[in-house]
Amino acid sequence: MNEGVFDLPEVGLVDKTTHFFSATLPDESDIALLITRRPLEAGSDLLEMVRRYVEAEAKKLRAYRLLEEREATWAGLPAIDISTRYRNEDTMAYQRHVHMASGGVWLIVAGTSVLERRDACDEAIERVLTTLELRDK
Hints:
Helix content: 10-25%
Order of helices and strands: EEHEEEEH
Structural class: alpha+beta
Mean pLDDT: 92
Shape: globular
């Protein structure tokens, strides 16, 4: 990790590192960025995994709706770029999540904001993605 190094016990641990960033925008709304890594499931392709992910989100989030699904290329990798909205307490939330596979790892870059600040969320995600440089592809 950035702050130091350590040894892990040899018990089959799987790296599911998550990086979470948040900020308050000038209009007092919040924006969050989340970068997650998970192992790719054996025998599944990325599209299958993303579809299961979207189905699981639809079951747990109120008023969930898929706004857009598109194929893209980020950091030289094929990606699946998803935009959704859902009810979060008394507001509608917007989430954009981009899924990529790299070296046996499923990378998810996600941003969340109130639906009205969708533009700021998209700008933040695109800033991350246009500057992303992967060490191993």
